[in-house]
């Protein structure tokens, strides 16, 4: 994903797309969004000796949001935070926080929030009920949130966006984060205020460029062949060129997935599925490819196939928020049939 983001930043085309409905791909009653980490934040504040408050943040996290635009209360989300990415702007303190007296990140590397239900509390205001797992302990929490961005394309790249902000107060001792005799019992407040600001994102892949800087991109060949002769012919052309001309094209898997993502964006589901399956053959351990296969099956109403693909993605990356979120949603739909 990081490689793709770099390629995206380096290869934007000139004119943005402002079409508001270009990328609506509904999945079991909702549309899937990832988190724009560069423009989101997960932070906290905690009292120090009754004198002041210490502020910190987590630098590494990811999220999957299933957003129902018609009724946001039917949306859901999973957020996975890397506990070791804690940052209070003081290296010595951060090292201590990562250690066994506090987060013990070697033993408990992830903090995970999963929503269970969303309650409407007023105009653009909601209470998100769910579970927070931290330091190996899970508790129910209710997070008041305000929708800050309705579903809309941004003005720069035409990426589809949603956004929300809120926070919740928890007691660190409820999660077994004790801090030792001095820090835990005397210096630090038990109450911790968690603050969240999320900008969801669904990329406008029409604005991404194939990488043909050194060699022609196989993605361009695939895109042209799909349009002229169909997906089966495109896959056949790929295999022919890779066998006969392996050094003449950029055969990187991200070139295949870019062509596939453009097709998915425009709801050309069978063609997109054929290219993602090709990408899975070339890179069978790529979690994102398995997730896209699952997304397409879900969008086509093939829940069993979608669930199988997302379960495979979860095997490859057990903390992948999209796979966690989609397996939960799809299993609940299957059991309800």
CATH topology of the largest domain: Lipocalin
The CATH architecture of the largest domain would be Beta Barrel
Mean pLDDT: 91
Portion in helices: 25-40%
Give the helix tally. 10
As a whole number of angstroms, the C-alpha radius of gyration is 22 Å
**Main pleated sheet:** 8 strands, antiparallel, barrel
Oligomer: single chain
Proportion of residues in β-strands = 25-35%
CATH class label of the largest domain = Mainly Beta
Order of helices and strands: HEEEEEEEHEEEEHEHHHHHHH
Summing up helix and strand content along with how strands pair, one would put the structural category as: alpha+beta
Strand order of the largest sheet: 2-5-6-8-9-10-11-12
Tell me what the structure shows.
An eight-stranded antiparallel barrel has the order 2-5-6-8-9-10-11-12. The chain has two domains: 19-202, Lipid/polyisoprenoid-binding, YceI-like (Lipocalin); 205-335, Tetratricopeptide repeat domain (Serine Threonine Protein Phosphatase 5, Tetratricopeptide repeat). The radius of gyration is 22 Å and the shape is elongated. Helix 7 packs antiparallel against helix 8 (287-299) and helix 8 (287-299) packs antiparallel against helix 9. With 337 residues, the chain is α+β, with helices and mostly antiparallel strands. The chain is built from ten helices and twelve strands. Residues 1-19 have low confidence and may be disordered. The longest helix has 15 residues, at 321-335. The protein has helices at 2-10, 91-98, 180-187, 218-229, 231-244, 253-265, 269-282, 287-299, 303-316, 321-335; strands at 26-27, 30-35, 41-48, 52-58, 61-67, 76-82, 86-87, 110-122, 125-134, 137-153, 160-171, 188-202. The two termini are 35 Å apart.
